[in-house]
Structures are given as C-alpha cells and as structure tokens.
Amino acid sequence: MLIAAGVSAFVGEREDAVIILAIVVLNAALGIYQEGKAEKSVEALQRLSAPNAKVIREGNLTVVPAADIVPGDVVVLEAGDIIPADIRLFESSNLKVEEASLTGESVPVEKDAKAKIVGTVGIGDRHNMCFSSTIVTYGRGKGVVTSTGHNTEIGNIAVKIQTYEEEETPLQIKLNQLGKVLGTLTIVICIIVFIVGMLQGRQPLNMLLTSISLAVAAIPEGLPAIVTIVLAIGMNRMAEKNAIVKKLLAVETLGATSVICSDKTGTLTQNEMTVVKAYVDDRILYVEGIGYEPKGDVKLNGRSIGISSLPNLRNLISVGVLANDAKLDNSSGFYKVMGDPTEGAIVAFAGKLGQTSEQLNMIYPRIAELPFDSGRKMMTTFHSNYIEGKIVSFTKGAPDIVINKCSKIALNGRIVDFNKELKDKVRSVNTKFARSALRVLSAAYKVWDRLPEYLTFEQVENDMIFVGLVGMIDPPRPEVKDSIKHCRQAGIETVMITGDYKETAYAIAKELGMANNEGQAIMGEELDKYSDEELREVVKKTKVYARVSPEHKVKIVTALKENGHITSMTGDGVNDALALKKADIGVAMGITGTDVAKNTAEVILTDDNFATIVNAVEEGRIIFSNIKKFVFFLLSCNIGEILLVFISILLGWNVPLLPIQLLWLNLVTDSLPAMALGVENAEPGIMKQPPRSTKEGILDGEMLGGIVFQAIAISFASL
Fold it and tell me: Do residues 75 and 155 share a domain?
C-alpha cells in the first residue's frame, strides 16, 4: 500500500496517494493497542512490601523503613505484620504466616525456629523461614534477614517477569503469513501485468497506474479494521460473561487453547474451608452447605438432626467453638472469616446447629488459655458455668496427639475408659477422613474443681475425655465438574497446578474428573530430576502437580508449549506471575487476585470462576470461525477484482476500475457485509470439536477452492 501510494504521488495522482495513505494510517491506528507492561507488575510487587519494620539494632528495638533493612538485621515479627524481607527464624512462639500470595494456599502456615530442613524443599515447606510480603496472622517471632529486595523469593519473581519477552499470538502469526502471501502475489501479478502491457505497446505511465490498481485490488484494506472491530466486539461479549480481556489479540488466542493449567485454591475450589464430616458417639455425621455461611443440614443416616440428637454433639460443638479465636462476619452481605480459616469452618458448622460463637462465649466465658503452638499441635481454653460448680478445659488439636492424651471417651451419654480397641477405632475413622483429603481436628475436655494455680501443658493436656473428630476441606466449586466435562468434549486438557499437598490435590482432582489414578499426580520436587526432554514426556500423562514453586510452574507451561499446546494458565498470587507471563494466555482472578497477577495476565475473571474460562474459550472459537468467514468473503471479492483488471488488460481493454474506485469497493462495499459475517453467532457443536492445530492457517484447501470459484464467478459477471 505504501509503494502504491508512492507511485501514485510520483506520477501526479496526488488524490489517489492521499487516500491510500489515509487508509494505511487508519489501519495502523486501529491496530495499535497498548498492553500492560512488565513494569506494572514490578510496581505492584513493590507495593506489596512492608512500609516499616521492627528491628533490633545495637540492642535497641527500633522501627525503620523496610527499604533500609539489610541482610544481618534482626527483625521482630508480631501478628498483623507484613514481613519486610526473607528471614531465617531463631525464635518463634505460636507463629503462623499467611503465604497465599507466594504459594497460593490460604491456610496460614505454622512456623518453627527449631524446624530442621533437610535437602532442597519448596517454599511452602521451609518452616523455619519467613518470606518477604507474606503476613503474620498469629503469634510472634524473631529472625535474621537473609535476603532483601530483588534477592528475596518475591523479588526474584519481579526480576524474571522483566526478562520474559512477548510472543506472537496464533492469530498474529496467521495474519502475518496471509499478509506475506498476499504481498508476494500482488508483486508478482503487478510485474506480469506491467510486462504484458509493455509487450502490447501500452504507455509505461498507464501501466504503472494499472499496476497500482491491481495492488489496491489485491490487498483487502478493510481486513485489519474488521479484525480489530470483531475482536473488540468479542472483548465486550466476554466482559458480559465476567471475563475482562486486556489484550485485544488474546480474545482469539483463547479459542485456540488446548490445555488449561488451573490453580486449585479459589479457582477449582471455594477458597473457604467447610466442615463436611464429623465423628461423635461412634457415628459419622455428614454436613451440608458451602463456605462460611452457617446454613445447611447436619445429617445422620440421611436424616437431618439437631444439637440434641446425640448425647455428645453439644460437647463437640462447644469444644470446637470455645477453643477457637475465629469469628464470622457478614457485614458486607456475605460471610467471611475473621481469623484462621480452619477455625472459621468450625464456627460455621456450629451455626448450622443453631449455636453461635457469641452466644457460647457469653454463656461460658473464657477465663484462661494455653495458646496453640506447633510443638504441641493443640490449644486449650478454660471456661466457667459449663458444668455447675466446675471449671472445664476444652482442647482442640491434631488427632494423633490428642487421642494419646486422653484416658476416657464420652460415648452415648457415658464416660468410659478409652481403651486400645476404642482408640484404634477412632484412629481408623481419622485415617479414612484424612485419605479423603480432609483436614481433621479432634476435640477433648477435662473437668476441674477450680482453675489450676499454675497452668502447665503436662498437667492440663493429659487424662482428658475424648469427644470426637471434625473433618473439613476447601470444597470444589459446584459448576467446575461440568465445565471440565465440557473441556473434555472440546478436546481441551485440564491440569491442576497447586502449592497444596499431593493427597489433597489428587482427591479434589479425582472428584472433579480431572484425574483417575494416583500415578497422574506428581510433586514439584520430582520435576527437578527430569531433563527438558524427559519433562516433555512426563507432562503428557500428568494431571496434578502438587507442592510446586513458581519456577516449577514455568517449567510445566514451557514443556506443554514445546509439545505443541496453546496454554492457558490461571492464577491469583505473586507465585503465579511467572507462569501467567510464560503461558500463551494468562488468566488472573479478579476477586482474590493480587495486583501483580492482574497486571501480568491478559484476561481477568471478575467472578474467579473456572466456568468463565470455558465460556471465554468458546467465544474465542466463535471469533476465529467468524474471521475465517469474512476473510473468505473479502478474498473472494478482491481476487475477483484482480481477475477483472487482469483479464481486461489481456484483452486489450481499458482498465475498468480506478484505484479510488477499488478502495471504495474494498472499504465500503466489501467490508460492511464482511463485518456482518464477523459478528455471527456460534456454529452448532463448536465446543464439541478439538482445538485447531497451531499449524492450521486461516485458509485451508477447501476454502481456497471456494475463493477461486467465487472470484472467477464475480470477475466474469463483471466483464
């Protein structure tokens, strides 16, 4: 087009030159789309950093800006603090840290200065370390700064984000290929026509103008504008379906997706711990309802029961709620937990039986406590009024520890010896719960004549009365299973990539239909032992990746891409940013997602729903199908115009159409019907076809045959 404009200007056809140049500028303007840069992700990472930190310097506790911290500083950590650097603990007391932004898991991690780390382990398993930008939720600790700034785990992610280069999308590649083919054909045809005209004795200037006409006829000037408009319409339709697309060409790339790599927590699951089973009075109860909303039935043998249906159900609820620091808040219109998610799930369970934390704590006030610590794996609180004239201590903790600390069991209204047979039975139930990927807590209590003068673990947490077990899980979203089924019908593979434990991840994947045997699940640390070639084979059969680091996620995505897949990666945390950048399409969560994830991704889901991704993929397929339709139409018209001019020259006739007339045909007469084709609805069964091959062009053999047939018909009809 630029050459045609130059030649037009050279031969004095300034009006033609100006119009042709205007078309070029218009198409260039429509094609410009400013996407989010890596710098935005880095800025968001910097905003995550703590503004100030408490450090001990020269023996004095002082508050300094986080930017002034250096390796070797001693940092003091307390509940609510944003950790300012990577720190190795040398002192800890009941310390819990929420590492969701770095590992993707919302349940706070217990930290222990005495923990021994053997070999190389993932971030989530380094229990004697605290990492920059994570949050202290409970307890306190002290540690020595090991890394700051870009040398921290989170800083390392920022550095790597900047190193990744943008890759061309499938549509860019196909349009560029089409453009090269059309450009080459245009030059060849123009040369042939010029030579034929000269052999016929025509004037060189006239033949130059004729060549310009052919060049204008050959190039579908409306194509870039229509592609841009159709993609923009697709963006709007996706936004209506809760998917905000930041990058125009990503709309179509979604339609080519052959593998969706999904985070577990919050995407496939609710990101809300929920009690689903309980064991009391030698019976297993099934708990309905989802999330922290205290609504749902508690069932025994398929029938709904109440708090008084079993002799010890009230005791189980009382231990769970009173030895508990979490509260439920619905001031925003939906229930969320204030405190530990595991404890919040128990409070919601109690609410389903008509018991609230506020009521129980008012009736049975807490008068003393032994806080939870990772060594004991228990917490105990003391309450008055529960038994008239007595003090009762309630203990909640890990089943394997609590069971061994109990000498009696409350069973069907009686207190009996907790003998080996009964203990083995309880342990068997605990094992079954755990194998179902449930997080299990046990409940026990002890009766006192008066509050002990000195509270010691050995005195308080021994010879207790065992009450029961509570099993909870972050349950799958109800719509995800059907969405994964639809993906399978569409030939799209879905894999889970999570920081959670292998057993939990596999159990969720199996329930959702993503995996059907444990051999399809693998730990992140296992990936390190494979070469690149071996990893490409491993990813062909693996459906679940557990305890993975940010680097592992990039390895997985890279291997899938090298196997020829178009990858879509979902994520919400800083830990997902590298993989979001590396994937063909990065999809961030709009509700739970960090600014880093949102700035890095091409698509943001406003409802954090996996099903929305599937809807977006369908929209992408519709768009590519429509692009093929209007390209077919435009090329049929353009080649018809070429043949019309070419045949006229061969027959010695005058050129039938001037460049300006051809531009009018291409931009108005051809483009408007083409645009109508570009916004058509989906063809039947579009999501029951496999993803198109990355080698598939916009035009196939059948389409080329149709284009040639229609072009010949158009040209001969015009003659």
Answer: yes
